[in-house]
Amino acid sequence: MISPLHKAHLFKFLSRCLAFPNEAFIPTLREAMEKIDDSRDELPDLVGSFEREETEPLQAEYTRLFLNGYPRTICPPYESVYLEQRMHGESTVAVAASYAEWEMSVEPGLIDHLATELEFLAFLASAESLKNEISADARKASDAFMQHHLSRWTPQFVADLKAGAKLDAYRMLGEVMERVLVEGCLEG
Hints:
single chain; mainly alpha; TorD-like; 9 helices
């Protein structure tokens, strides 16, 4: 069974993988990866795959996959787009309510972005790892958030990412996300 702290570091790492690949991208991924106690080679391989790419092709692929591909964006990382085919839908309101229960506020355009949802889960897993009076509440909130939010749309997002990525780095990201989100934490 995966420990809450390990889960927090994995969620944080995956969140960082969804950042725009600028000059801080690789150092940020490396820093996040170093906190993960994992014997598998898939995370260093993923970071290495990002490192092997030039910045401009990574940025172009990021834009095509997540922001504004033509004729359509391959896998916009927003829950409301997957569940309601529009931005800022009812699912966004529900996600914001989950954050508010933990007194978290998020910039309106990023509420249901996958990176933000992963950061929230990292926060909850960190709270759970403290083994104090809020640990059980954090675990319940995390389980509920997974059930009511991530499990409803990330399997399709991951499938779209794996099928639509032209660069190995983003295809590998889809494979890692599938293992962690779809096969691992969501079902465990």
